[in-house]
């Protein structure tokens, strides 16, 4: 299995697909997910060089009970400077936490070594307050976040279900209320060290504020948002479109937070066109 040792010798798992076109796409997944949930997408991109990873603390990568969004940004930087050797431009696609990892990377290195980025259903600031309503659920206070963290620490699998069924997608919430067993039978199990790793990351994600960073994005940016997102209001997408000058915004009518699952062909079409357009 391919791993690279990052800046602090933690082993990071990654998967590579080779293609015939001169573009390399790096897909950064969401919090608590892993590359195996995304690799089915490769069938829609047979001609591109594609990279997926298990972010630090996730999947087959080493756990790190002090993991953070900053460390993940450094992992990505290390990959680009020490592991990636192809002469092709890199297009980074960040879903959820993956988008926040890109924002953190840009806060440290601007858009160095990136030719384009795609942001999938993400806000630049997760926690809300009296002046900012475009974070999680449109209403996610420090108090709510602390309750969620306590749920994660008690049983992360249960906590992830709670996080995804407490939000804006009423249809999804009602499905959970009617058939909770359907969700719990598919509950993911995390050991203690993995739980501490992911909760450590979550704390740094919810403390971050990248609103001033997105203003500085100066490369072509594709913004993809789900109209049935569990987490973000459509106004979040419009905020991002306004702040990033060279950006294009598309909504997915059937899409929730993981819109590439509900509408994979449209997702692939938009990503492919974005990659190859001049």
In short:
The protein has 278 residues and is of the alpha/beta class.
How is this structure best described in words?
This protein has 278 residues and is of the alpha/beta class. The protein has a domain at 3-125 and 208-276: Rossmann fold. The protein contains eleven helices and eight strands. It has helices spanning 69-83, 97-109, 142-154, 156-164, 170-178, 180-184, 192-207, 211-214, 234-243, 259-262, 264-276; strands at 3-5, 11-17, 24-28, 49-53, 90-95, 116-120, 221-226, 247-252. The chain has an eight-stranded mixed β-sheet, sandwiched between helices. Helix 1 crosses helix 2. The longest helix is centred in the last third of the chain and has 16 residues, at 192-207.
CATH architecture of the domain at 3-125 and 208-276: 3-Layer(aba) Sandwich
- The helix/strand order is EEEEHEHEHHHHHHEHEHH
Task: Give the C-level CATH assignment of the domain at 3-125 and 208-276.
Answer: Alpha Beta
Q: Averaged pLDDT, please?
A: 97
Number of strands: 8
Report the helical percentage. Answer: 25-40%
Shape: globular
Distance between the termini: 35 Å
Main-sheet strand order equals 1-2-4-3-5-6-7-8
Strand content: 15-25%
Provide tags for this entry.
278 residues, Rossmann fold, eight-stranded mixed beta sheet, 11 helices, globular
């Amino acid at each position: 299995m391919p791993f690279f040792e990052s800046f602090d010798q933690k082993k990071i798992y990654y998967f590579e697909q080779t293609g015939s076109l001169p573009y390399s796409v790096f897909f950064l997944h969401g919090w608590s997910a892993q590359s195996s949930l995304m690799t089915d997408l490769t069938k829609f991109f047979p001609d591109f060089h594609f990279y997926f990873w298990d972010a630090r603390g996730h999947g087959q990568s080493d756990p790190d009970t002090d993991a953070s969004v900053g460390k993940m940004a450094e992992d990505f930087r290390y990959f680009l400077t020490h592991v990636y050797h192809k002469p092709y431009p890199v297009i980074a696609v960040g879903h959820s936490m993956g988008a926040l990892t890109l924002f953190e990377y840009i806060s440290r290195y601007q858009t160095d070594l990136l030719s384009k980025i795609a942001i999938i259903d993400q806000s630049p600031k997760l926690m809300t307050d009296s002046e900012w309503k475009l974070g999680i659920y449109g209403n996610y206070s420090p108090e709510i976040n602390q309750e969620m963290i306590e749920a994660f620490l008690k049983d992360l699998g249960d906590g992830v279900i709670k996080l995804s069924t407490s939000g804006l997608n009423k249809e999804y919430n009602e499905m959970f209320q009617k058939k909770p067993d359907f969700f719990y039978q598919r509950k993911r199990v995390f050991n203690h060290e993995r739980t501490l790793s992911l909760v450590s990351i979550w704390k740094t994600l919810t403390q971050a504020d990248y609103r001033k960073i997105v203003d500085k994005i100066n490369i072509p940016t594709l913004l993809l948002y789900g109209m049935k997102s569990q987490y973000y209001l459509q106004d979040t997408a419009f905020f991002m479109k306004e702040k990033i000058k060279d950006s294009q915004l598309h909504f997915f009518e059937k899409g929730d937070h993981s819109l590439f699952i509900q509408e994979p062909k449209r997702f692939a079409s938009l990503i492919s066109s974005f990659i190859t357009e001049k």
